[in-house]
Amino acid sequence: MKESLKEKKMITWAKDLFPYNRSLLGSGNLKTLSYLKKINKNLKILKFLSGKKVFDWIIPKEWIVKEAYFKSKKGKKYCDFKKNNLNLVQYSTSIETLLDKKNLIKKIHSIQSQPDSIPYITSYYKKNWGFCMKDKEKKKLPEGKYKVVIKTEFKKSSLVIGELFLKGRTKKEIFFSTNICHPSMANNELSGPVLSSYLYAYIAKNYKKTKYSYRFVFIPETIGSIAYIQKNLKLMKRNILCGFTLSCVGDERVYSQIKSPHGNNLADQALAASLNGKNKIKTYSYLSRGSDERQYCSPRVNLPICGFTRSKYGTYPEYHTSKDDFKVVTEKGLIGSFEVLKDVVDSFELCLYPKTKIICEPFLSKRDLMPSVRDKKMYKNKQQLIISNLIAYSDGKRSIFELSNILNIPLKETVENLRILKIKNLIT
Hints:
CATH superfamily of the largest domain: Zn peptidases
CATH topology of the largest domain: Aminopeptidase
Largest sheet: 8 strands, mixed
Structural class: alpha/beta
């Protein structure tokens, strides 16, 4: 099976998308989806109008920034939005006023423990305004009066969601969800969309017709998933077999899983199996949730979904700051995450519930799976033990992921050995 997608580099896509001013709604989101559509032309753009009630929430208006800065008496500008879109608190309202330093400082966010970082701050659902800057620069602001200029506009518009769907031989689908609402952050934002795009391209390229259907959604966090769920809940509950939220999947530091509320659904099993054998694995309970698994796993939705990250959001120092850049996200980190999800996809497409075709133990020697001359060394041969144990546990009731976890071997090895058994006509 051909796997190469060398002509499509995730890190390049992420760098191209980095400058767009993404938010809950707006041109930055639409530009992001238009770019992703060039990678996979089947991407559809769904729209939800401002003011629409979605469960307990209301889709807000689009926020448009014309200009934002403050300047000293000498005319020096600070926190110029045109230079860095993290300098302005998201959804800041318009204001034009004169403030002395003491009162201006109250409206400037910084991080004392990270003096070289600009924090990312939002106020989506309550009218407010503010700036964000490096703490070391904030401390150097001269005394005196400052002219504050924020010119923004709020207008009725559409929340946009990207959707990629690959129809399989069954309606049962594997679901992937990632976010398109954060500006100028590489790991927390762009790693998920580029990984999803790459994985979709891999499936489309390597499988002429998949057994299962595959759906990828690109959404503004929280409000986007809530809107999508309201529109599609019945279909999702009927068809989603397994799903993953993807966030912060581009660094090389660690592999992390955020489990579902009960911690034992098919997605939990699949991700645990695929992470088996990796260095530096962290497992979090649902008590540490933070992305859209909050919506997909909520009690009255209750979909079989868990979260996949590398360094989990909120746990690494660059999170939600200007330091979340391409020193954090690397091509190697992205490829590592791709390999995790690729192995999950390959497992579904090979056989989800392997079942032996032979009553009693099959005669493996005549199939060149065991040596015809046996001695005590055979009991230490890892490959032969894996083959034997896979057959012993392939009862058609245990998933390929359970088998991998029972045998405590990487999912990739499980797939490779089950593929051999399938070629030998020993399992279905």
